[in-house]
Amino acid sequence: MMQETEEKQFTTDPEQIMQHRRMVEAILFASENPLSEADIAERLPEGVDVEAHIADLAQAYSTAGVNLVRVAGKYMFRTAEDLSFLLRREVDEPRKLSRAAVETMAIIAYHQPVTRAEIEEIRGVSISKGTLDVLMEAGWARMMGRKRTPGRPVTYGTTEEFLVHFGIESIKDLPGVQELKAAGLLDSVDVALEKMGGMPNPAKAIEEADGQIDLEDAIAASERGVGGAPEAKVEAPAEDNMA
To answer: pTM for this one?
Structure first.
């Protein structure tokens, strides 16, 4: 039997089109989190061209005080960049991360999926489980699975919240080594990066790791409160005092 593919039929009534656009606008405006086209479409009636309305709204708001932006493959309203200074007093809540946490996060972002032992090898110093816990509690890092190697170590990677926080579409858009150096994030891992031949490609690494990690084991470990394989049981010195 031949299976017929149904094409979506969008309304052509001008009044309905305008009403649908207002609906899409209202849904995006009221949401605290970024929404995908599918998230928006499931709340709307049939005949709504969500993609077209998003494009029109993005254009309409491009010169407004708030912009419709795409982050992590989803959409959300954000204050226009040139007006962000107006809200700093209300929304800025500095969260001081230790040097160890900042360096660990940078390594996770650029080397994911990466194990704790690999993070320690790059930093040249052992890390406490607390450092990883802080990053996971902040919602920036997550367990991606267990590597199918001896010891079955847990691998770590970035989250959607990490992309949203830094306003980037995907890990492919992470800044290059020069930008990170300028921000002071690579001071202690410069040498390691040079030995490795430069900045790694996290998107490619994740693709190559497909099938080499087991997510179910990582989820089970998380539910039991286990942070990693035996290699993770390292008593770290006061790493934040490292030069």
So the answer is: 0.51
